[in-house]
Every structure is written in C-alpha cells, then in structure tokens.
Amino acid sequence: MILYDFACPSGHEFEALIGSMSDDDPACPTCGRTAARRPSKLNIGGLADPGPSRDQMPRTWVQTNRGDRETLRHWHDLAARRDKLEDKHPELAGDRRPVLAHEGVFARRPLRAGDDIATAVREATSAASSTTEHDTHDSERQG
Ligand SMILES: [Zn+2]
Questions:
Q1: InterPro entries of this UniProt entry (predicted)?
Q2: Which of 10, 51, 65, 82 falls 20 to 30 Å from 72 in CA-CA distance?
Q3: What residues contact 100, with CB distance under 8 A and at least 6 apart?
Q4: Would residue 137 count as lying in a domain?
Q5: Do 87 and 60 belong to one domain?
Q6: Tens-of-pLDDT digits for all 143 residues of the chain?
Q7: Are strands 2-7 and 36-38 parallel, antiparallel or unpaired?
Q8: How remote is the CA of residue 42 from the centroid of ligand 1, in Å?
Q9: In this structure, which residues have their CB less than 5 angstroms from ion ligand 1?
Q10: Is 140 a member of any domain?
C-alpha cells in the first residue's frame, strides 16, 4: 500500500492508501468527485525529506522566477519545513551566519559575517576560476 496525496476538482485535498500505481483514483470523501493524485510529501521509507538546504534556496529576485507568486510560496513552504526540521536536528542547519555578499566572486561561495574578507575573496576567486569543478563542496570549509 502506498500513501498518496489527492486533490479533487473542487479543491478538496486528502490522503489515501492505494494498492499500486495502476489502481483507480479514489473518490473525494467530501464531494464524491474523482480525485487526481498529487506528488506525495512523504517518502516511501517514512523518513522526512530534508529538502533543499539554505544554500540551495534562491537568494535573488531572478532565482524566484522574478517574484512569481507560486515560486515564492513554494520556497517559503520549503523554508518553513526546513526551519522545523532544523529545530529538531540542529546538525542539519549548517552555516547560518548572515550572508554579506553573494554576487560576483561570491556567487558560488557567499561571504558571511565573521569571514576573513581577504581569505574569502581568495577562496572565492580560486573557486570561480576553476572551470572543472561544478559540484558544491561545502563540507571542506567546516570549522
Ligand atoms: Zn471534493
């Protein structure tokens, strides 16, 4: 059995267990219309999905699709979930010092409050000039 989220054409949202992907979609318990499956918020294993980290969240107007309402709501929801998760699991919080600069040479490695500026600039420019590295290596600058 798999737990899915459903939404009917009238906008009622509910969860239902169905046997397999090929089963018929259930009727809405509120109005009886056939509901459509929505992507589930739950993982199959029952573990909470930590979602994107703070560093992966948009920081600029352009990254939010120029302030698109749906996009903003989506990220706001993810951020709120992330906050709750980090309350429970502080080890997920990562670096939460305020970001002072995140553009130009700091696009890939933001300058944060408390960073030594000369070091940060050197790291940022060396990161920006390495053309082969596309991954985000955040773990290397712990401590
Ligand atoms: Zn309904």
A1: Regulatory_FmdB_Zinc_ribbon (IPR013429)
A2: 10
A3: 110, 111, 112, 113, 115
A4: no
A5: yes
A6: 677 888 899 989 888 887 776 778 888 999 999 988 876 554 444 455 666 676 677 777 777 777 788 888 888 888 888 888 888 877 777 777 888 888 888 887 788 888 888 888 888 777 656 554 445 555 455 45
A7: antiparallel
A8: 22
A9: 8, 10, 12, 28, 30-31
A10: no
Domain range for 31 is 2-38
Contact between 85 and 50 under an 8 Å Cβ cutoff? The reply is: yes
What separation in Å is there between the alpha carbon of 7 and the centre of ligand 1?
A: 7
Q: Which residues contact 108 (CB under 8 A, 6 or more apart)?
A: 124, 127, 128, 136
Q: How far is the CA of 46 from the centre of ligand 1 (A)?
A: 26
Tell how far the Cα of 14 is from the centroid of ligand 1, in angstroms.
Answer: 9
Question: Is residue 80 in a domain?
Answer: yes
Q: Domain count of the chain?
A: 3
Distance 6 CA to ligand 1 centre (A): 10
